[in-house]
């Protein structure tokens, strides 16, 4: 039982980066923008976080630097696709390729960097419980904050006027514009917030989860996060559950290997992607369900003068 509870704790830790990035991309897509550059933003944020943490000795400063890096790259992407009306998919792919190459270039000197030790954290009283306490209630604060943020996002999207406006922009930007809402600025703000969250996810990977920088260390999580928003049909609670599901698939493979099951490492590396393909294939069998939940104007440019 202790082994499985410990495994559950690892699932929460592994799924946190996916949850943060996916919630950021969900905000983008609720506003009608698809950003395929998540992988590149997460890589740039991961190396930026390590660089700032090494320079300052503060993990939290590194996390903020990761958010800033993701936000800046997302702002550039937003200006291109929202004001210059470049193709969202091509621009996102270019951003992903740029981030992959740029992070590898600037991160060369940081592959062996030593990060400061993390300050131990535990939820009062719960962290002292036997067995479950150390596994579930002594995680990094971000593991718990992302859960709180997911429910706060539900409240924002479905219980506030600002959330209603954001969803309206994603459903029908022409109607929102006719009512006097600044569609382009709202979309840009959503893109920047989403990019900052992708940046936080990348910095979490390098500073909290893997504790260091390695070239390509995001390992496709940005692409899985994009698929996860579709898997969750653009619902924050489902995004959270899906992130832990994929985190569980990742950790299950390592657990089986540790228990003596002979599994090639290549198979372990491909398991999350196989799970992604299987889930998307199952969802695609019911396209009507996707259309009902998908923002109507997702991926479509908006021309205020038309």
Core attributes:
single chain, 306 residues, mainly alpha, ABC transporter involved in vitamin B12 uptake, BtuC
SSE order: HHHHHHHHHHHHH
For the sheet with most strands, the description reads:
none
> Kindly state the mean pLDDT as a whole number?
88
CATH topology: ABC transporter involved in vitamin B12 uptake, BtuC
As residue ranges, the low-confidence spans are none
Total domain units: 1
CATH C-level category: Mainly Alpha
Describe this structure in words.
This protein is mainly alpha-helical and 306 residues long. It has a single domain (16-293), classed as ABC transporter involved in vitamin B12 uptake, BtuC, CATH 1.10.3470. It contains 13 helices and no strands. α1 runs parallel beside α6 (141-159) and α10 runs parallel beside α12. The model has no long low-confidence stretch (mean pLDDT 88).
Outline the secondary-structure elements.
Elements lengths: L1 H29 L7 H19 L2 H25 L4 H19 L25 H5 L4 H19 L1 H11 L1 H6 L4 H27 L11 H11 L4 H23 L6 H19 L3 H7 L13
Helix pairs in contact: 1-6, 1-9, 1-10, 1-11, 2-3, 2-4, 2-9, 2-10, 3-4, 3-9, 6-7, 6-11, 10-11, 10-12, 11-12
